[in-house]
Amino acid sequence: MRILLVEDETPIANFIRDGLREEGFAVDVADNGRAGLEMALGYLEEYDLLLLDWMLPGVSGIEICRQARKENTEVPIIFLTAKDTVDDAVFGLEAGANDYIRKPFAFEELLARIRVLLRSKDGKQQVFSCGDIEMNIETYRVTRGGEPVELTQKEFALLEYLLRNKGKVCRRTRIIEKVWDINFDHDTSVIDVYINFLRKKLDHPGEPSFVETIRGVGYRVNDEA
Ligand code: CA
């Protein structure tokens, strides 16, 4: 899951970015309105959610929201705002935002709201499976044959992406875009390393891997694994 964060106050931006990365999200940060607008419109299909500060130098969060909404009616948008009158909140929602959160806020509250929006976007599907592997996004639990398996945040995010796209070929460039982020140096060999971590934890020794390598292209999870 990839999130665009547009926030000009560096300490707040870093706090949110680090927290979301620890939760396994890929996060791109723009520190002014103009860059935020460019990234939002330039990569809109890549983003699963936009987090927009309201007051930004250059272009306001409201304006980014309006323009992004014109291009994509689906992407969830949350405002971060110091404004706290009802009128302002209504104005933000009328501009096309799904939700807003007032500063200062607890990270857990922001995370909860993000998860709610991503869940409704996915048609509420929270449990994914493949063979005897089962993953519950909400409880953050992965089991194989009913036995819990401990995954790191990145392993979890990678497995989630693969299972959400079960049966489809997941291209390496696409995996990098969705699971890592824009500042990543695009050395896709890191994916192979993480696929191996997942195989070590989830495959049954002596049996075919749950994730198939599509040579030169990427990976695919099949249901009969
Ligand atoms: Ca601001």
What does it look like?
By secondary structure, the protein is an alpha/beta fold. It folds into two domains: 2-121, Rossmann fold; 127-221, Arc Repressor Mutant, subunit A (Orthogonal Bundle). Helix content is 41%, strand content 21%. The chain has a five-stranded parallel sheet with strand order 2-1-3-4-5, sandwiched between helices. Strands 6-7-8-9 form a four-stranded antiparallel sheet, covered by helices on one side. A hairpin with a 2-residue loop joins strand 6 (127-130) and strand 7 (133-136). Helix 6 (153-164) packs across helix 8. The longest helix has 15 residues, at 107-121. The chain is elongated and about 60 Å long. The protein starts with a strand and ends with a strand. The model has no long low-confidence stretch (mean pLDDT 88). The structure holds calcium ion. Calcium ion (CA) is lined by residues 8-9, 53, 55-56.
